[in-house]
Amino acid sequence: MTKTNILIVEDEAAIAQDLKDIIQIEGYTVIGIAYSYAKAVEILAAKKPDLVFLDISLRGNGSGLDVAKLLNTKYKIPFIFLTSFSDQETIKEVVSLNPCGYLIKPFKEKDLAPAIALAFVTAKKNFGEAFPTEEAINDSLMKALSPQEYLVFKNIWKGKSNAEIAEELFVSVNTIKTHITKLYAKLDVNSRSKAINKALKA
Fold this sequence. Notes:
five-stranded parallel sheet; 10 helices; elongated; Rossmann fold; Arc Repressor Mutant, subunit A
């Protein structure tokens, strides 16, 4: 199974470790922890994560804002700001960097999974990603999606609910749930966020 790789850029070791533990429980892979801008740059040069959790304050020279600019311009990697800063000036600067999420410390464990799911949906809008063709997706799978499963997948990509997809395709919600179960099995994923990430890689 292809796992989603996440990089943590956080200057407080205890928080970074807590974050790593929760992310791994959710079924994702943490490819590294960077406590400074320099370490973050080093890891990014060696590995390409699918998502970055990014603190604003970092050790040494360079801040999380600098890392964010690099992620946007050079790597096109989505990121979620995780910070104790919530003043209007910081938020204004953060918004200008088009993050795919913003969590205030101390964060709640239950907030992380939805934040990751939302990040992948937002990423495709930020980076102008188009949904892959049916052929492109099926080329990467052991068992091809049916045309109906492909349409369901495309609507998941658009952020539609099961009810909205059912209305779009003129079928029942239960039928959509059945398609999604088969879709997840073929993609080897167990959530919408992981399915979307799979499409981003197709």
